[in-house]
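Entry 14. Ran structure prediction on the chain below.
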Amino acid sequence: MKRRKVLDAAGMALSTPFVGCLGGSNTAGDGKNETDDDNEETESEPGDDTVTNPKEVEEDPRVDEPPHEIEEPDEPDDLEDPSWNEEYLGENIDPDPSVSFDRIPVPRGYVQSPPLGPELDYPAKVFRVEVVTNEDDFGETFDVAEMDEELRDRLNVVDFDASVIVLVETGLGSSSVEHRWVRVEEVDYSLHLHGYYTDPYEQHDDIDTRFSVLEIERPATGFEFARVSLTINAEQRGHFNSTEGDVVLEK
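Output, structure tokens:
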């Protein structure tokens, strides 16, 4: 078990406006991260990819073991200047094949859906993914009037004939931890996001959710829902989708 240097934060409470965890995307414009293309990953895909009624789709298995190699870094020798790879949970996820996607730095406070997990006791593993597919959904999801001009202009150029917006919120834990997204696959009327948590050596001791907004190329064959496979730790990869609402893992 690695020891962590915990950074002081403003209390142990879930914050409603989310502004601290987005940073930037680890993806380039073609939707690929800076992983080694030679790494190979044998995916175990959850669920049945033939959709008859997307409102009834549930992910099965809910949790499995990450199929890619994960090697936790050694404890650093110098705690004042730790050498630590916070990307180790996902650096060997295969980035191919992937449709084009781009992460948009929208803080949680500009999204009008209720916050995730305030009724849950910490720690909890709770997940939600939502989709925005048209202008009506867009207006109901984002509080655009409160955004700065740059962010508002970025969202306003989304062409829903060519793209969809996917929002992923998970938690609960330190705001120092972020999502990373490696690839998005088009699978029979759905978009399948593959990502992981970062694991910084130094972490704030607050409690928050982790939040992502992605613009993703719309499948040419049609789009009905989004599913997510998120590597949570070295032993667990969780699966959830936009037909399920809030998903809570028992362990």
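The chain has two helices and twelve strands. Will compare against last week's run tomorrow.
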